[in-house]
Amino acid sequence: MTRYSAWSIFKNGLAGQRNWRRAWRDAEPRAHYDIIIVGAGLHGLATAYYLAANHGAANIAVLEKGWLGGGNAGRNTTIVRSNYMMPGNRPFYEHSLKLWENLSHELNYNVMFSQRAHITLLHTPAARDAAARRYNTMRLTGSDGELWDLDALKRAVPHLNYDNARFPIIGAAVQRRAGTARHDAVAWGYARAADQLGVDIIQNCEVTGITRDANRVSAVQTSRGPIRIGNAGKVGLAVAGNTSRLWAMAGLGKLPVETHLLQAFVTEPLKPLLDQVVVFGVGGAHFYISQSDKGGMVFGGDLDWYKSYAQRGNLPAVQDVAECATSILPCLGRVRLLRHWGGVMDMTMDGSPFICKTPLANLYLNAGWNYGGFKASPASGWYFADLMANDRPAPVIADFDLGRFRHGVNIDERGAGPDPKLHG
């Protein structure tokens, strides 16, 4: 095991940087594993790490159809926050934020977590009242949150469109502990830490079928051959927008999940302009923006509303997001887009996830992350590992269950009702 430190950097610098070990092994699949996690994104890698680190599990494989972190892990805007209010979501995302705050130290890998504050712009008295309720709930449950008036906002972010905005800005709701992280660094950090605990990370190994023996999964068919699961073995699905495909392979019918595309964008590098995450949402608009360490403005907006598994989007969404950007930050009007990308989002009926058992005795589900997958990664892995190790959900995720709609337990953070039906 190589431990990164200032001394190791100095020592390897004297040796011409020739003595670094690989961060993780490129493992070959074995014929049998005790635990298989499908999906080497942030949730799958975090699950494998916490299974080994927290529960002492061994003989674990993480299967990835492409390259590690090549799905949604590398296709997002990297925002981390815990400004949730609903029971279930509130303690879950706060636990995730606390894990983020120590993640670089725990993994011995710099995930570049920057607590630069998350600022939600307020445009109406009703929005201010709703934010006051939410942020007071956060403060009463051990988190941080505050409301800024217009003068405080202008001092912190002076170059917003205060004078000619279509929707006048009257203040902001702020979580100072929130911020951003480096998405690929998080994937690499979890992969390295899991590998050092004996987890096999197998890339270019697409799952093509799931073999059942009555009410259990007995094997996983892959592009690199079948992999068996023992009688006490377990399989976890953490494949984001491709969940419904794997679900169908297991012969389980339909999930209450729709797959949609979410595009994100980055501009050419600029001098320091925005030191916070700023969110703008009113009148049907939805927009969020921050500035990367390299200077690019990273931003996104709403979904492409048609259902799709493709990692590419359409031009109306590009136009909508660009209009939002210039509406709230007119100074970006002549800035050039450098690139954009799309992730496939698994949208649930209430906007909250599933971390639960399935109708099959040894198959477990991690899905339905909607817009919240990146920020949830540490807690998602933590609680999914706990579920798989102990075969029961922790109290925090007890309602992140497939049966919650049948029982009328909606965790509707937006308060908008079951709106996936509006997606097309």
SSE order and pairing:
Blueprint (H helix, E strand, L loop, with lengths): L5 H9 L17 E7 L3 H14 L4 E4 L15 E2 L8 H19 L10 E5 L2 H16 L5 E4 H7 L14 E5 L3 E2 L2 H14 L3 E3 L4 E7 L2 E7 L4 E11 L5 H7 L7 E11 L9 E4 L6 E5 L5 E11 L7 H14 L8 E12 L5 E4 L5 E5 L5 H18 L13 H4 L17
Parallel strand pairs: 1-2, 1-11, 2-8, 4-13, 11-18
Antiparallel strand pairs: 3-7, 4-6, 5-6, 9-10, 10-11, 12-15, 12-16, 13-14, 14-15, 17-18
N-end to C-end Cα span: 50 Å
Describe the oligomeric state of these chains in a short phrase.
Answer: single chain
SSE pattern, N- to C-terminal: HEHEEHEHEHEEHEEEEHEEEEHEEEHH
Estimate the mean pLDDT confidence: 93
- Separate helix tally: 10
Global morphology: globular
Number-wise, the strands total 18
Largest sheet: 8 strands, mixed
Strand-pairing-aware structural class: alpha/beta
| Helix-residue proportion | 25-40%
Roughly how many Å is the radius of gyration? 22 Å
Low-pLDDT stretches are none
Strand content: 25-35%
Question: Which descriptors apply to this entry?
Answer:
18 strands; 424 residues; single chain; alpha/beta; eight-stranded mixed beta sheet; 26% strand; 10 helices
